[in-house]
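Contributing new complexes? Match this layout with 2-acetamido-2-deoxy-beta-D-glucopyranose.
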Amino acid sequence: MVSFTALVATALALVPSAVSAPSGVEYSSTHNSLATRQNAPWQWWTEGSGQFSCQQQGGGKYSCSWNGQQGGGMVAGTGWGAGRKTVRYQGQYNPKGPGYLSLYGWTRNPLIEYYIIESWDVLAPGEPWTLRSNFTSGSANYAFYTAQRVNKPSIEGTRTFTQYFSVRSEAEKKVGDVSGTINTADHFDAWSRAGYRLGNFEQNMFFVTEAFANGTKLPSGTSTITVS
Ligand SMILES: *[C@@H]1O[C@H](CO)[C@@H](O)[C@H](O)[C@H]1NC(C)=O
Ligand SMILES: *[C@@H]1O[C@H](CO)[C@@H](O)[C@H](O)[C@H]1NC(C)=O
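Output block (do not edit by hand):
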């Protein structure tokens, strides 16, 4: 068990994205508030029933396996200070059912939850998505969607807020061996051009494996991802 104080100290030391965490660390932060989880350099949260197992392996690497039952879900991945940054990831991602491989974070004023979704098996949003624009970042093509969440958990407690989603084009999406470079500034600027600005980055952003049950669609799979 890594103490939360140690996690925060590690998070503050990250410049800008390399993660030097002890290897083989496995712990649950399920009991922590969302705001607390967003300050850590490693996110590991589950809900509902199913088997979820994730390990942080040091150097920004993590691995997960999951088999969710009805109502079950998880989010796990590597975090670092949020903002305009270039993030590289590579590894294996083998999902079945709903979930994403994505960069994810929050801003305040306005309160926004944002995602840059690189891969998935089943895209099954909890709320309807509205297409706002299409844009490119380097040679990658994305669609930009927004959704409204009403009275849902946020870093400020239960609130109503907007979610922003960049979603890699279906044709470019890969499963199995995955790798890529995300320039977050390209996304933030594209969202702003479409009329959707972000607020202040106050906490970490994460490159996560997220999996969740949506009705009868259950998630299972494995991932091993290194973020740098
Ligand atoms: C499940 O996904 C569908 C779209 O595939 C969506 O309309 C529905 O709201 C989702 N339900 C939940 C509980 O997430
Ligand atoms: C924008 O992205 C959506 C979703 O991938 C796609 O259906 C649509 O054709 C795209 N539009 C353009 C102009 O590329």
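Reviewers usually confirm one structural detail per submission. For this one: Confidence is low (pLDDT under 50) at residues 1-28.
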